[in-house]
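Below is a filled-in request sheet from our internal design queue. Each sheet records the structural input a requester submitted and the sequence that came back. We keep these sheets so that new team members can see what a complete request looks like end to end.

REQUESTER: design group, bay 2
PRIORITY: normal
MODE: inverse folding
CHAIN LENGTH: 168
BACKBONE (tokenized):
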């Protein structure tokens, strides 16, 4: 069944996939992270709208809210969404590597020196920087993608439990 909750869950998964696909592009990664945070956080709002009239849902969901509010990762997740949607881009950092080589190589220069040939000035060649990690510094440098996947799994479990209990 393609319910609004399922569509919103699919939307969050799509933006997570796009984050992975655009991992090295700062601009696209940031756009997709913001969209992911918004879509993923909206899932529980959609859940409440879809099931609020079901007998027992309010009591069940109240217990789920208590569990979610005591989960420090979900709390951080929600704060990251609030920042991304209302204040500024999500607060993550990144690490990059950059390949640097020399033309001619140091070995070639030393070989020339051994032979008594004149020294040839080195030309430094700098490669494109490569993003190797995007992380949240407030969470012991946990990788952004891994963190988002983990939170989405938690939300998906809540959705499945809700569907099992309240879909007729």
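RETURNED SEQUENCE:
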């Amino acid at each position: 069944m393609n319910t609004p909750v399922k569509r919103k869950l699919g939307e969050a998964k799509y933006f997570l996939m796009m984050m992975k696909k655009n991992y090295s592009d700062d601009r696209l990664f940031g756009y997709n992270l913001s969209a992911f945070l918004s879509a993923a956080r909206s899932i529980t709002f959609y859940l409440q709208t879809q099931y609020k009239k079901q007998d027992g849902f309010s009591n069940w969901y109240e217990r789920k809210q208590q569990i979610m509010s005591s989960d420090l990762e979900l709390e951080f997740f929600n704060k990251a969404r609030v920042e991304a949607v209302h204040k500024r881009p999500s607060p993550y950092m990144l690490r990059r590597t950059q390949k640097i080589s020399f033309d001619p190589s140091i070995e070639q220069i030393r070989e020339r020196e051994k032979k008594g040939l004149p020294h040839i000035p080195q030309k430094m060649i700098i490669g494109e920087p490569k993003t190797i990690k995007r992380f949240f510094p407030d969470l012991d440098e946990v990788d952004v993608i891994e963190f988002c996947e983990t939170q989405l799994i938690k939300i998906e479990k809540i959705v499945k439990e809700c569907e099992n209990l309240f879909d007729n």
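SHEET NOTES:
- Helices lie at 4-21, 26-51, 57-70, 72-87, 106-114, 144-166.
- The first strand starts at residue 93 and ends at 97.
FILED BY: M.R.
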